[in-house]
Amino acid sequence: MRVALTIAGSDSGGGAGVQADLKTFSRFGVYGASALTLVTAQNTLGVQRVELLPPDLVYAQIQSVAEDLPIHAAKTGAMGGVGIVRAVAEAVERYQIHPLVVDPVMVAKGGDPLLAPEAVQTLKDRLFPLATLITPNRLEAEALLQKPIRTLAEAEEGAEELLALGPQAVLLKGGHFAGEEAVDLLATRRGILAFRAPRIRTRNTHGTGCTLSAAIAALLALGKPLEEAVGEAKAYLTRALETAPGLGGGHGPLNHFA
Ligand code: PXL
Question: What mean pLDDT comes out for the span 181-196?
């Protein structure tokens, strides 16, 4: 059996974070292990509380998994602050965790912060160079590059600039742009590929970023090439949005078993 590790935060509501990642790994028949970075008290209406775990405890969880299980792929999600980003980078280097998908989570769906502003630089300096793929949305790309990204041309330029920060590939997600289609751009050293899908009009969008990056990690764990993994994961996300169960009074979760 193939094994994927998620290094991410807990969403008590079950729609995002580690909970979304483990369900997604299971959907693809991949065994899921987890290292928790932070705990949120959260539901579909918002985040009521966030507590970060001590960085050495985050490292210890990764160490425990890596010393016993074969990690065929890993992903990172919410990391809270500088100390946890550093601990994760050290563990990834020490245990040679690869392929690694880095979802640069900064805020939860409702805008609640999940990464301290000063940790953005640490993420760029320490973790991006270790990443097989980073998966920023528009807002995260703007924060990483400190400039607005409004058009497709600006998105292409932004994806190339993010690639220059050291990851092997960048998936700049199109969910936060306008338009009938959601266009994701995959930038690698071989050039830029566009992945198109119809935009699903729904308020059940909680955990879309987590679910997409977890699906990519699962498909990489199964040995798929990156382009194929991204295409299949995006098709899965469209179906997960279309068949969302409609739970809760706010931004509801997806159907992770689509
Ligand atoms: O989708 C980003 C995200 C990541 N991790 C945790 C979250 C969220 C969004 O709510 O709660 C724990």
Answer: 94
Active-site annotation holder among 75, 158, 210, 234: 210
Q: pTM for this structure?
A: 0.97
Residue 35 CA, ligand 1 centroid: distance in Å: 15
**Residue 10 amino acid letter:** S
Ligand 1 center to residue 172 CA distance, Å? Answer: 18
What is the number of residues in the chain?
Answer: 258
Contact predicate 95/238, CB 8 Å: no
Token digits for 159? 């994806």
- Side-chain-side CA neighbours of 38 within 13 Å: the count stands at 26
Give the tokens for residue 88: 């994760």
Active site residue 132: no
CA-nearest residue for atom 2, ligand 1, is 108
Helix 208-221 / helix 226-242 crossing angle, nearest 10 deg: 140
CA distance 81 to 118: 8
Instruction: Examine the residue annotation and report whether 209 is marked as an active-site residue of this protein.
Output: yes
Half-sphere exposure of 132 (CA within 13 A, CB side): 22
pLDDT of residue 177: 78
Q: Cis peptide leading into 113, omega within 30 of 0?
A: no
